[in-house]
Amino acid sequence: MYFKDVIGQQKVKERLIGEAREERIPHALMFCGPQGSGKLPLAIAYARFICCEHPTEDDACGTCQSCKLFDKYIHPDVHFVFPVIKKKGDPVSNDYINEWRELIQRTPYFSINHWMEAMNAANQQPMIYVKESDEIVRKLSYKSMLGGYKVVIMWLPERMNIECSNKLLKVLEEPPVKTVFLMVSEDSSNILPTILSRTQRMNIPNLEEKDIAETLLKQGLTEDDANSIAHCAAGNYLNALETIHMSRDNKLFFNMFVKLMRLAYMRDIKELKGWSENIASEGREQQKNFLAYCQRMIRENFIYNFHEMEMVYLNPEEKQFSQKFAPFINERNIIGIMNELSEAEQHIERNVNPKMVFFDFVLKIIMLLKQQ
Length: 372
Ligand SMILES: [Zn+2]
Fold this sequence. Notes:
The protein is α/β, with parallel strands linked by helices. The protein is built from 16 helices and 5 strands. 55% of the residues lie in helices and 7% in strands. It has a 5-stranded parallel β-sheet with strand order 2-3-4-1-5, with helices on both faces. Helix 7 links the parallel strand 3 and strand 4. The longest helix has 30 residues.
């Protein structure tokens, strides 16, 4: 992550770069702002810049030893601290450093939910425990390995427990030389005021619509899609990513639904068996999402027959398919089909073999489609 990779935030970048070039590097910076605005990417790009041995005017060089270590997030003078879940005893960030590196290398734009998923956390609340402050003190007591700054990047300091906050306060009061704390907060009201007063606050605004749209265009979206998704994202890049994800699933589900109905209509048992095996190989959540999609399609197609178009919620592609398909869903089979869908959902929930569930389901659909 370089400054050039950070979406938008031109003013913030200019200020950070300008101050660093004048060697006005505060010993503790608090990046505050809403989710999906790019606070963590900014903190990482800034850390890379101040550690770089030959920075250019506005970014790190990319070739020095420091930059190379940054590529893999294994720089010995840069320490990440983030909320973690308990296994046994008090955990520290290092216990999850592999998961963290993997996620951050994929993208530094993520939410606490993505991070919980990466840690395989169920319902536990990730926290920064007191043992972490001892770790920070220990790490900062070593000499800088590369001779430059020692940096601590702390993601979500609001999740520090009180003992940890108090211990960290002591470090912030008397920071070791050439040490920089970069904190990335989404809710600074939950941070001790004494900590806040010892950090320089950097407010990060929501992203601008045009900056999100430009990023989506580079990812290969059409101009129309990029603009409309950027608009709905309301300055939060994570929202935009979620929309793209959902529309991809939607497209996939639509194709599977169409294929299922065509094969069922033709009573192609052999192909239907392949179809069931295909969906059975997906994850359980995906299977449930597909069944929910089918329920929506069946309901919408039933309503389609009443020709009350303002009551129909289908996208253009789905609507086109429904012109011919809708008459197959009628008052004689809609309840039966809906029942089969919810039964399949329950069986998936209860871990019944999905191959059996879906093959049984397609056989019933063949029967039900006949009832016209
Ligand atoms: Zn460099």
